[in-house]
Amino acid sequence: MSETLFVLNDAPYGTERSYNGLRLAGSLAKRDGEQVWLFLIGDAVACAKAGQKVPEGYYNLELMLRSVTRRGGSSESAAPAWTPGVSATRSSSTGVGAQPSMS
Questions:
Q1: Angstrom distance (rounded) from CA 66 to CA 74
Q2: In the chain, how many domains are there?
Q3: 4-18, pLDDT tens digit by residue?
Q4: For strand 74-78 and strand 89-92, is the pairing parallel, antiparallel, or unpaired?
Q5: Domain with 6 in it: what CATH number?
Q6: What pTM does this model have?
């Protein structure tokens, strides 16, 4: 089994870095014998925000992240406790934010 860790730290919209990271993670997660891990830090934590209002012409990164976790990938976000509207969550194959881990 091969394991790959992706560390995303860019905002979900405005650049294509998080989008491209999630695209690659999704492609790898489809393969047999691949374990994909995503670590969202800084502005990338917003990729996991539920109910995003996506700018016209952009893909919904929340849905892309959910797709990766449904395929067996795991994600962890490092949101500071003071960040308004964002909480630190741990995701499992059940979806983004399925298991809160406020430690």
A1: 10
A2: 1
A3: 999 999 999 989 999
A4: antiparallel
A5: 3.40.1260.10
A6: 0.70
80's CB contacts (< 8 A; 6+ apart) are none
Q: Which spans in 7-75 are helix H?
A: 17-29, 61-70
DSSP state of 87: -
- pLDDT single digits (tens) 40-63: 999 999 998 888 888 898 899 998
| Cβ–Cβ < 8 Å for 83, 44 | no
CB-based contacts of 32, cutoff 8 Å, min separation 6: none
The per-residue pLDDT for 76 is 63
How far is CA 33 from each of CA 2, 17, 73, 88, 93, rounded to the nearest angstrom? 6, 25, 12, 28, 16
Distances (CA, A) of 60 to 37, 48, 95, 101: 19, 10, 15, 24
Coil, strand or helix at 89: strand
Domain that holds residue 47: 2-100
